[in-house]
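Try this one yourself first.
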């Protein structure tokens, strides 16, 4: 995990260096304009957000590592087995059709925003039926508890 922290801080530093180079380069590319008008703001802002996001991830991983008191993860140990890193993923219903219905309701909602607003109440109705069906699918039928 320490190597991940170092890589994210390195990436943050790289974005900072590239933001400075990009901004200075855009100023020097247009000497006829004042400096504040010569800056290409889209790229400079995007690189600035890249600095922020990579620093945020590095800080988060660093705090998590400190919270674990420096214990190495199974991925970082040479003597770890593949099964040591497996976690419980939860309970999933591979036979369930409700996620497909939820996706269809989202698609109808987007089409309703693009084409005609009369589709939005229909999409909300399908969404309500699908979310209730998905939540309560273990309470009836073959897999009832």
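Now uncover the answer:
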């Amino acid at each position: 995990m320490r190597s991940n922290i170092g890589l994210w801080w390195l990436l943050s530093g790289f974005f900072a260096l590239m933001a400075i180079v990009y901004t200075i380069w855009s100023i020097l590319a247009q000497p006829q304009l004042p400096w504040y008008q010569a800056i290409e703001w889209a790229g400079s802002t995007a690189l600035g957000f890249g600095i922020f996001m990579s620093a945020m991830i590095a800080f988060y991983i660093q705090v998590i590592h400190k919270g674990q008191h420096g214990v190495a993860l199974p991925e970082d140990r040479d003597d770890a087995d593949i099964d040591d890193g497996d976690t419980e993923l939860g309970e999933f219903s591979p036979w369930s059709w409700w996620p497909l219905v939820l996706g269809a309701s989202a698609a109808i909602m987007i089409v309703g925003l693009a084409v005609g607003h009369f589709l939005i109440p229909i999409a909300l109705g399908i969404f309500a039926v699908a979310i209730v069906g998905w939540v309560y699918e273990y309470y009836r039928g073959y897999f009832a508890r």
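Discussion: The two ends are 42 Å apart (CA to CA). The longest helix spans residues 2-29.
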